[in-house]
Amino acid sequence: MPRITRRAFLRRAAALAGAPCLAALGPPWPWQKQADAPFVAVDAHEDLAWIMLEYGRDYTRSAQATRDHERASKSDIPWHVGSATLGLPDWIEGRVAVVGATLFVMKAAYAEEGSEIIYTDADEAYRWGMAELDCYEAFAQANPQVRLIDTAADLDAVLATWADDAAPEDRQVGLLRCMEGADLIREPAECGAWFERGVRSVGLAWKMTRYAGGTGEPGPLTELGRALLDEMAALGMMLDISHIAEEAFYQALDHFGGVVFASHANPRAFCDWDRCLSDAMVKRLVERGGVIGVVLYNGYLKPGWTPNQDSRNEVSVADAADVIDYICQLAGDCSHVGIGSDFDGGLGWEHIPHEMNSIADVMLIADALRARGYSEADVKAVMGGNFLRLYREGLPA
Questions:
Q1: How far apart are CA 395 and CA 176, in angstroms?
Q2: Which residues, 6+ apart, have CB-to-CB distance to 313 below 8 Å?
Q3: pLDDT band, very low/low/confident/very high, at 397 (cuts 50, 70, 90)
Q4: Alpha helices (runs of H) in the chain, residue ranges in sequence order
Q5: Whole-number Å distance between alpha carbons of 278 and 320
Q6: CA–CA separation, 102 vs 30, rounded Å?
Q7: Contact predicate 129/182, CB 8 Å
Q8: Distances in Å between the alpha carbon of 298 and those of 47, 206, 315, 320, 345?
């Protein structure tokens, strides 16, 4: 088990006392003030390790270089997950300082024939999840511009490389390791081992898991799910409610007192199915101080959009700004929305707003918000500041 931090200790003490965990934390740690932070983007959800292991993409390349390589080699990878939209040069160009880097293993029942990164039982899920952690560690060790984020101090060290006078080659991209689908955790007591390896948030579901109902498979929070949430709260881990079924969503928020967010989830007003959030769910997350990462998938941005050869041109970054504005109107301010692109996680260049060639163009959304009359402070919050605030709250010092 990892060393229990002051933050985790206070959460555990609050839980035992029956008090809301966040209320027990007292004054914030003396981290860098939000107003002093550089203007950067945070992308709260990218399935990097899964893509690297399943498809062999090299994220030291730019997205364009990957597309050129896959086209020249007549690869079928774009057919499976779309044409590449991510790469280290693109993160640097787009001022993407922090990425929510997922651990994701596909349930065998939903995997394409020939897929390797799949599981049929908890042991298999565990082994692939640990392999993905190894993948992130190797990626960071091989690339000085990539840093793994374990603590708030790591986060601030990454942000320090984005000072105005920093050279592009000295800037770093921080990877915050986040689990998507908790079946990788074989039993709740194992949660500490994942925390020790650097996992800082857990999403209970993708489809249904042993812990909760999920997308397309509605169901409640299970007793095993409640036990896992207790372990997460004691360690100070964050809860990602993306993909969780609506019934389980409310039960999890009632049970868990720690930091909650949706790394990649859009309002149902733009795409009416259980993968997305109802207005009531959005408001509940806002009440809990959560942040919602807007997915930059055209089908979630524009009602009725369907992919075909020409439909990419039907959606623009202005449509992404509409979704962001909708959440801000529900929330009553701009403090609860950010970006969770889900780029390369089954959607590619063909499925994103037509002005965007890669994640390097994410700041076009900032321009669209300015055009709507958003203040510079609010634009900064949406593009990265809101998730930075939440991560500082949830990370150990």
A1: 10
A2: 354
A3: very high
A4: 6-17, 48-55, 63-72, 77-81, 88-93, 122-142, 152-160, 191-196, 223-235, 246-255, 279-287, 298-301, 317-331, 364-371, 376-380, 386-394
A5: 17
A6: 28
A7: no
A8: 18, 20, 6, 9, 14
* C-alpha span between 292 and 295 (Å, rounded): 9
What does the alpha-carbon distance between residue 70 and residue 61 come to, in Å, rounded to a whole number?
Answer: 12
> Is residue 353 classed as helix, strand or coil in its secondary structure?
coil
Q: Coil, strand or helix: which one is 100?
A: strand
Average pLDDT score over residue span 288-293: 98
Give, in order, the Cα–Cα distances in Å from 395 to each of 177, 199, 272. Answer: 11, 10, 33
What H or E segment, with its residue span, contains residue 44?
strand 41-46
Q: Which residues contact 114 (CB under 8 A, 6 or more apart)?
A: none
Count how many Cα atoms sit within 13 Å of the Cα of residue 359 in the half-sphere of its side chain: 36
Cβ-count burial of 278 within 10 angstroms (0-12 exposed, 13-18 middle, 19+ buried)? middle
Question: What is the model's pTM?
Answer: 0.91
Residue 19 has pLDDT above 60, yes or no: no
Contacts for 48 with CB less than 8 Å, ≥ 6 apart: 59, 86, 99, 101, 102, 136, 139, 175, 344
Element (H, E) at 43: strand 41-46
**Residue reference for tokens 């992404």:** 320
CATH superfamily of 6-17+41-394: Metal-dependent hydrolases (3.20.20.140)
Q: Where are the alpha helices (DSSP H) in 18-114?
A: 48-55, 63-72, 77-81, 88-93
| Residues β-bridged to residue 239 | 202, 260
Cα–Cα distances (Å) from 35 to 165, 375, 394, in that order, read 18, 14, 19
Cβ atoms of 63 and 87 within 8 Å: the answer is: yes
Per-residue model confidence as pLDDT tens digits over 319-334: 999 999 999 999 999 9
Structure tokens at 257: 């007192």
Q: Is 194 helix (H, G, I), strand (E, B) or coil?
A: helix
CA proximity to 297, closest of 327, 275, 328: 275
**Start-to-end Cα distance in the chain:** 18
pLDDT at position 22 over 80: no
Q: Which residues, at least 6 apart from 53, have a Cβ–Cβ distance to it below 8 Å?
A: 116, 117, 128, 131, 132, 135
Alpha-helical runs (H) found in 56-172: 63-72, 77-81, 88-93, 122-142, 152-160
Specify which residues 293 forms β-bridges with. Answer: 338
